Records
---
Amino acid sequence: MSAYASSDNKRSNWEHKEHEVIRINVFGRAMSVRRVGGEWQLFNESQTGMCARVYDVVIPPELTEDELPGFLDDIYHEHASERHPSVVIES
C-alpha cells in the first residue's frame, strides 16, 4: 500500500494535490505554488506563461492550502497597496 493511500485504497488529499498548480495573486503579483515531494514550491508567473522558482521563500511543509495566503501575506506585506490590499487564491 502506498504511504498516501488510505485503508479503503482511495487517494488521500495529499496525493491528489501533488503537483497541482495553485495560482495566487500576491498583492498584484502573479505567483503560483505547487506541492512537490512533500514540500511547497513557490513560483513567479509571467504574462507569457513562463514561471521562475522563488528559492528565497521556504514555505513550511506542514501548511495547508488554506494557510498559504496568510503565510504569503506575512512574507510580502510590504507590497500591499490600496489597489492590491491582500493575497488571494485565484485557482
---
Amino acid sequence: MKSIILDNGIKVQYLNRPELSLFTLNLFLLKGAVYDPPNKEGVAHFVEHILMKGPKYFKSSIEFSQFLENRGIEFDGHTTPDYICLNIKCHQSEAYKATKLMIDMLTEPSIRPTDISNEKK
C-alpha cells in the first residue's frame, strides 16, 4: 500500500497489484465525526453519503450506480471519528476511470435536492 498526501491535505492510499489485475484507491478526508459542529452530529457521515451519489454529470445516483456496475467498479465509503474514507476497487483496465470518478466526486459532487432529502430521513 502506498500513501500520498496532496497539497490540500487529502491523504490518498493506493494499492497496485499487477499479478491480480486489481486496482484499489482509498481516499481519506481528515474531517471525521469529531469535527462535526456542536449540535450537528452526523454531518461527516452525511457528507460521505452525498459524495457517494457520484459526480454532477450523472443525472441520478441510480445512473451512477449502473455506470459502476457495468464496469465492475466497486465503490464504498465509511466515516470514523477521525476521517471519511472513500474506496474504489476495479480491474486495472478501469483504473483511470475510477481515479477520475474519485476526483470528480470531490471537485464536482452531485448535490441534488432529492438526494439530500432522502439522506436526512
---
Amino acid sequence: MNQMETERLMSMLSIYERRGREIGRQEGRNLGLIEVAKRMLEKGMKKEEVLELTGLSEEMLNELVRDYSLR
C-alpha cells in the first residue's frame, strides 16, 4: 500500500469514526427521551402532550406504551 492509499484509508476511517459517534449520541438522546416520555405517561400526561414535548414519533410512543403497558 502506497502513501496515497494509506492516507485515503485513514481519511475514510476518520469519517466512519465520526459517523459512529454521531449515531451513538443520537441513540443516547433517544433513550433519554424515551425514559422521560415513560415518566410523563406514568404521571398521567396525555399522549399528545408527551409527543409535543419530547418530539418522539407517534409510532415510537405507541411502542413504548405497548412495551411497558402504559396508558
